[in-house]
């Protein structure tokens, strides 16, 4: 089969190569892959950052989210059958090998793809959707009628978080460039803010919960906008300690997060997407062989929406 292989942490390191077909072990499922989602953590890891500390040997195949079809079942797997359409966000932050024509997935970390959800959209739901869900509900403990501010609301996590928060009954505000304000309104955001002109002092004591997709000084400034007892969930791990330190001694809480595979939550996201209640914005679909170009586009920071590799 064909797969993307990484032989070293260095620029231009993605190789489209022929590799052996994998064999599922106990509790695992062999997948014929149809699509793989591309995320910033992918290119960061391939360049030696991100989750590189969890890569124990070379070569390895990047990618943590996929959509495909069950080809074979490992010992003890009874909840799926051959031919089932499935999707998953798997093994993170350890290598998962989703940039490949076939892959091995833990049966406990995948879910059936509901009718009405196409493979491309399903492949892009995992990381961003679960991050949004876990940040809002597991970490942020969002309650109906609370006021929520989403920093980088038009981003991969942000645009899904906005929809989930609206559906939970929250009053949602989001930051973005003015070009994305109309789009955010279609997602249900009641207030849109230009991130370039934003003065958090004017929003002091306004929000119960802030979902921070930016980090650094932007997140630190945003602490001013929290009500007493408010929570800020910060996604970028590289500045999480800095943001947490800035909140020490105050009456607000900073909660770092690292997304975790969760098949039950992913099933709920997939059902909402299949019913049109959760809309994933797809920026571009490229063939698996052009994974390096997908990483270049993602690293540019100018992509609005999800990049997906078609297998």
From TrEMBL:
<dbReference type="InterPro" id="IPR020843">
    <property type="entry name" value="ER"/>
</dbReference>
<dbReference type="GO" id="GO:0016491">
    <property type="term" value="F:oxidoreductase activity"/>
</dbReference>
<dbReference type="Pfam" id="PF08240">
    <property type="entry name" value="ADH_N"/>
</dbReference>
<dbReference type="InterPro" id="IPR011032">
    <property type="entry name" value="GroES-like_sf"/>
</dbReference>
<feature type="domain" description="Enoyl reductase (ER)">
    <location>
        <begin position="11"/>
        <end position="309"/>
    </location>
</feature>
<keyword id="KW-0560">Oxidoreductase</keyword>
<protein>
    <submittedName>
        <fullName>Bifunctional protein: zinc-containing alcohol dehydrogenase</fullName>
        <ecNumber>1.1.1.-</ecNumber>
    </submittedName>
</protein>
<dbReference type="InterPro" id="IPR052733">
    <property type="entry name" value="Chloroplast_QOR"/>
</dbReference>
<dbReference type="InterPro" id="IPR013154">
    <property type="entry name" value="ADH-like_N"/>
</dbReference>
<dbReference type="Pfam" id="PF13602">
    <property type="entry name" value="ADH_zinc_N_2"/>
</dbReference>
<dbReference type="InterPro" id="IPR036291">
    <property type="entry name" value="NAD(P)-bd_dom_sf"/>
</dbReference>
């Amino acid at each position: 089969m064909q797969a993307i292989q990484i032989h070293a942490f260095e620029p231009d390191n993605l190789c489209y190569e022929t590799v052996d077909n994998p064999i599922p072990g106990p509790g695992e499922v062999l997948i014929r892959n149809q699509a793989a989602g591309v995320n910033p953590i992918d290119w960061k890891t391939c360049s030696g950052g991100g989750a590189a500390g969890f890569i124990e040997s070379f070569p390895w195949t990047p990618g943590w989210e996929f959509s495909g079809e069950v080809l074979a079942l490992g010992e003890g797997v009874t909840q799926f059958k051959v031919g089932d359409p499935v999707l998953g966000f798997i093994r993170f932050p350890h290598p998962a090998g989703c940039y490949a024509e076939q892959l091995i997935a833990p049966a406990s970390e995948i879910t059936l793809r509901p009718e009405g959800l196409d493979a491309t959209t399903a492949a892009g739901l995992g990381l961003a959707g679960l991050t949004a869900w876990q940040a809002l509900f597991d970490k942020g403990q969002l309650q109906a009628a609370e006021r929520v501010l989403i920093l980088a609301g038009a981003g991969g996590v942000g645009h899904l978080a906005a929809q989930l928060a609206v559906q939970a009954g929250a009053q949602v505000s989001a930051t973005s460039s003015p070009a994305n304000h109309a789009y955010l309104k279609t997602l249900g955001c009641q207030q849109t803010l230009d991130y370039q002109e934003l003065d958090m002092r004017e929003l002091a004591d306004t929000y119960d919960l802030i979902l921070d997709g930016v980090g650094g000084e932007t997140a630190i400034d945003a602490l001013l906008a929290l009500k007493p007892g408010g929570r800020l969930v910060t996604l970028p791990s590289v500045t999480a300690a800095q943001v947490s330190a800035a909140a020490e001694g105050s009456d607000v809480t900073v909660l770092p997060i690292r997304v975790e595979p969760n098949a039950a939550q992913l099933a709920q996201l997939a059902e909402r997407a299949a019913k049109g209640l959760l809309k994933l914005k797809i920026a571009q679909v490229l063939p698996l062989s052009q994974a390096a170009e997908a990483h270049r586009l993602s690293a540019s920071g100018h992509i609005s929406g999800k990049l997906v590799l078609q297998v």
